[in-house]
Amino acid sequence: MIVHQATPIDRALPFLVIVIGAVAAVTHEAILTSALMLMGAEIAIPEERARLLAFGVVVGIALAAAILVRRPAWSFARAATLTVAAILILRWIPLENVLYGREIALIIIAVGIVSALRSAPWAVALAVAVVLFTPAIPLRTLALPIVVLIAACAAALRGRETRALLLHSSAFVLMVMLMFFPWSGAFARALPVMLRGVTITEREPVRIALAAGQSVELQVPHGAVSIILSGSNIPKLRKGVVVGRVDPGGVPLRVGDFADWGVLRREQFYASRNPLPRDPAGLLRDYGQASWIDGAGRIRLPKTPTIRITARQDLPPGARLQIDAFEMECR
Amino acid sequence: MTAWIIAAVTTFTLLPLLTFRGRTLTRYLRLDLATYLLAWIVWRQLPDLDPIFGCAIAGAAKLSLFSLFLATGEEVRWSANQAAVIGILLYALIVPTMLRAPIDGDEPYFVLLTESIVRDFDLDLANQYRGPDLAVTGRDLAPQFGDPRGPRGEMYSRHEPFLSVLLIPGYLLAGVPGAVATIVLFGALLLRSTVRLFEDEAIPDRVTRAIFPFIAFGPPVVFYATRIWLEVPAAFLFVETIRGIRERRALRWIAALALLAFLKLRFLLVAASLVTRTSRKLIAVLAAVVVLPLLAMWLISGSPTNVHVLRDALPPDPTRYLIGLFGLLLDGMSGLLFQAPIYVLGVIAIGRWRSTPDAFRLGLLAASLYILFLIPRSEWHGGWAPPLRYVVFLTPILALGAASLWDRWSRVSIALLAVWTAGVTVHGLAFPWRLFHIANGENRVGEWLSRTYQSDFSRLFPSYIRPNEAAVIAAVLFLFWTAAAGRRFEKRWQAGAVQIALAAVVVAAFFHFGRKPAGRVDFEDAHVVHQGGELYPPFYTVGRFLYRGGWIVRQGDSMSFLIKRGSYRLHYAAAQPAMIELGGRAYVLPAGGGDISVRIARDGRVGLRCLTGTANLDRME
């Protein structure tokens, strides 16, 4: 009855409410009020970005509060429930993208980490973070949480005590991760970009892809301040490799000024050698664990009426230098 | 803006340093730092968010955190004076947000009166209305309806001058901001007195600390303590009166009561209610308390009752009592339930009369005559003023009643009340001009949803200004809840999960039915998509709620709205015959007014176009 917006996050509201209900059951019943706040946000905020962020803030605060409440006392059940809840929210939306076997394995590993670290609050944050930042594609990326689990077991065997001091930091870290659950995939793979914020600016599309050695002269629209570029089929190129140049001035365009357009997709992320763009201009795409930011970067324009962009002669086969758009205003 | 943000950071740093100690302070400061980081992250994600709105949300979040620690912290410095200091700091921070829009309602008249007193040493505003002095108010003022006139053309204000006298020092020091600062001081005094009242009535400290943020930072006090209205000084004097009587300090309560009556003659009804509580020795003094303000007003305006006449005191149609009473409690625009729900707990405490604190019973009895005279009046909702104007003075007493029930309420209910209260506060701080409403039967939430979904959500909020079906349902439910609910029943409903589930069902049903076509349409409402035409009576019409509202359409103007199929009566007024097209059929509106029969063929959005002439369309039902 409530869900009427189109995104997978909106459609996942009943799932979120169930997860929050489970969290409230092992911590404090007042956390249930966040379920009502989610409903309120769904109804009252039509603008998608603000609404999804509101969901994130509500869920983040609810889980952080679940860590901070003093009663009932910390127990394995409470820590494990919080861990599983956070992972479900971060990795199981949208449901159609879930690789069940791997995700269940990740949950088991995360609970193992929490157990090995004696159910400390910071263990919850650590386990959730490790799982969040594991792409799970390819399968060998599961090595990361397994290594952490082994390290946790080793620490447990040596009898290290957990520190209460980390309670608030753990709550905060968990809250920030969950704040971005509507775009958890993008958050995991482009953390600095997400924290700084993905801005949507006014753009004039160009949509030209230059193959090796090709060149194009473009009229700079009035008011344009930068040009948005990205690569195609260049995920194996390392930082600093020149891909083309901008004239006048012969300014080199390097990997690092921008990245391969789809490199931050979950399936391509692990195999890529591209760094995040220095001045990212990519847009947020998709939702939840499937979300990603395209690898576009922003290049300041010289103050000339026309520019020429040339792709390097010896680009790898199939590689393209993509001119996405002119950006019309400063951020 | 930058200066305000620096002031806000300073205030939110000072508050915990002054209030918390030891581990509570350390824990608070850690979380406080986290809120700044959180605010920064959110701001980066939503660069287009209105900065004032964003700051209000961030401020409310920090205040909520502070309130949580105040209520639950183990090492808290707490006293009545501490409460006053917290109040001064917070209100001083809020004043600039309130002064973003020019002062409104009666406020500029109080300032104009002060201006007249300090410049001309008189109460005659004739030269103020004519001259440049008007500029001090930031408004283009004209005399108010019913203002008294002197024999030589003097123009007096309908307002009693005592508040304007109190404003003089602040006004001389800093103009309008200085006048507001005076009210801020009264706000702080009110908080101090309220905490002392709670202490006198043996309310546990932890309960006082828990309920204090609702009183101090929640509506209506937070809005009236930062604007130029007499309600907060009145609340302070009322609390002092009650405390004085309880402590048997005659001089104190009589002085407070006298000043209360000088503030506004309507508070004489409070004095009259206290006659039965007074010893014979003090009857003469109490009589003087009643007579002196009347005498003063007679000297000023030529009438002891100022602009009031005996007819005001006569009981009109008995149904008006029901409307006013339930309106004050449940109205979507100006009722306690929606504007300051914490005080509804105080109303519910009336049902447990014997177990409530003595001061609560005394306060309610003292206010009973006032309430009895208030509720049948057409302006029970406060008119052009922030919500709950006429009951602000009673809020400390209602809070005392709420405090007596505090431990009976689940934490979930308290959390829900807190979230709602924070929302209302944020809205008022970010958009202070929206505290004033034309009282047409809608409220801000209803209007927002109606505009967003172009469907009539306002009809689902109980309105006693324009009584609707929701008003009847709300009244019945309220009576059922307070009177019929037995203890066992109540306990069952106290479970947090049950309350949340119920609330979720209510919200879901609200949203479901809100998007369905209604069986009535008021043409001035927010859900109607207007293309041309104008609101009637105009927005700033004095006492607009006294008129039937409507929307004037001329040839070519059109509108559309969701409505159920069926037969309706369309109410209108037209000087000349007009013709409209409604749902594909043409209807002639004969000259004059009244209603015509119209038919809607199917559920859904219907267009209405004015084909010829001009008509004021009121409603279709």
Shape of chain A: elongated
Q: What oligomeric state do these chains adopt?
A: heterodimer
Q: Compute the gyration radius of chain A: what is it?
A: 23 Å
Low-confidence stretches of chain B: none
How would a textbook summarize the main sheet of chain A?
4 strands, antiparallel
The Rg value of chain B, from CA coordinates, equals: 26 Å
Largest beta-sheet characterization of chain B:
6 strands, antiparallel
Number of strands of chain A: 10
Total helical segments of chain A? 12
Percentage beta strand of chain A? 15-25%
> What share of the residues of chain B does DSSP label as strand, in percent?
5-15%
Order of helices and strands of chain A: HHHHHHHHHHHEEEEEHEEEEE
Mean pLDDT across every amino acid position of chain A: 91
- Low-pLDDT stretches of chain A: none
Give the helix proportion of chain B (percent range): 55-70%
Summarize the structure in words:
The complex is a heterodimer of chains A (331) and B (621). Chain A has 331 residues and is an alpha+beta fold. In chain A, 42% of the residues lie in helices and 16% in strands. Chain A contains twelve helices and ten strands. Chain A has helices spanning 8-11, 13-26, 33-44, 48-68, 76-91, 100-116, 121-132, 143-157, 167-179, 184-189, 191-196, 266-269, and strands at residues 203-210, 215-219, 226-232, 242-247, 251-254, 284-285, 292-293, 297-300, 306-311, 320-327. A four-stranded antiparallel beta sheet of chain A has the order 1-10-3-8, with no helix packed on it. In chain A, strand 4 (242-247) and strand 5 (251-254) form a beta hairpin. In chain A, helix 2 runs antiparallel to helix 3, helix 3 packs antiparallel against helix 4 and helix 4 runs antiparallel to helix 9. Chain A is elongated. Chain B has helices at residues 2-19, 22-45, 51-72, 80-98, 107-120, 126-130, 162-166, 168-200, 205-217, 221-224, 231-246, 250-263, 268-273, 280-301, 310-313, 319-330, 336-339, 342-349, 358-374, 395-404, 411-430, 444-453, 469-484, 487-493, 496-514, and strands at residues 521-522, 529-531, 534-536, 550-554, 558-563, 566-574, 578-582, 585-589, 592-600, 604-612, 614-620. Chain B is of the alpha+beta class. The two termini of chain B are 48 Å apart. Chain B is globular, with a radius of gyration of 26 Å. In chain B, helix 8 (168-200) runs parallel beside helix 11 (231-246) and helix 12 runs parallel beside helix 14 (280-301). Helix content of chain B is 55%, strand content 10%. In chain B, the strands form two sheets. In chain B, strands 1, 3, 4, 6, 9 and 11 form a six-stranded antiparallel beta sheet that branches. A five-stranded antiparallel beta sheet of chain B has the order 2-5-10-7-8, with no helix packed on it. Chains A and B meet through helix 2, helix 3, helix 4 and helix 9 of A and helix 2, helix 21, helix 22 and helix 25 of B.
